[in-house]
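In response to reviewer comment 3 from the previous cycle, which asked for concrete evidence that the modeling workflow produces usable outputs, we include below a single protein chain processed end to end. The sequence was submitted unchanged, and the resulting structure tokens are shown without manual editing.
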Amino acid sequence: MSKLTDDLSDCGPDELVLANKILFKYGVVDGFGHVSVRCRDNPDHFWLARNCAPALVGSGDIIRHDLNGDAVGDGNHRLYLERFIHAAVYQRRQDVIAVVHSHSNTLVPFSVSKAQKLVPVWHMAGFLGQEVSVFDTAEKFGKDTDLLITDMDMADAMADCLVESDVVLMRGHGATLCGRTLPEAVYRAIYAELNAQILIQAASLGDFTALTAGECVATVKRISPQIGRAWNLWVREVEPG
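The workflow returned the following structure tokens.
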């Protein structure tokens, strides 16, 4: 059955399955990474797949979680180690409806580079703001961690970087992106990746021009109402049959 829609806020477990497959198709996630969406019937719960590769997620793999990162009414599946990322963001940001966490090998260089910050250079990525902050586990948790976010203390510290931004890089690890709908979060994950590719290409040519603060605001205002156009295409691409 088609999942094409004009109501981007009407997303639940079925659309979350599609989001996993879309993010895999566009190279944002591989065997690792995950995406979640807040439950419509209870804002203190969110849907997230069990511990499995995104491309393999099916309807039976979607599990309800609470804002401590615990499964609700399901004790039979392994959970993602970094489910706490999603829980902390939903706790901190009531406006956030969906979260994508990836280990994008295009974004990771910007999490470790001392020479170049991740900035928007493309009108499709104004949501990045003028500079994306970097969360470094070593600053609060020492230099002997595995860089993963595996408890609420670490997730809360990471969420501090998302108070005034919808995107945070994680040093030597990946990125976390927020959306006010599931399609918006997926859109941002894909276009953050594409912007990073363009930025790397532009920087290799020499000096480049990034978006101004005003351009960031204006492009988000202009592009956001158009996200459904991309979402419906992506859904059609990954729908079975």
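The beta strands are 34-38, 45-49, 62-66, 98-102, 133-135, 167-170, 174-179. We consider this sufficient to address the reviewer's concern, and the full set will be provided in the supplementary archive.
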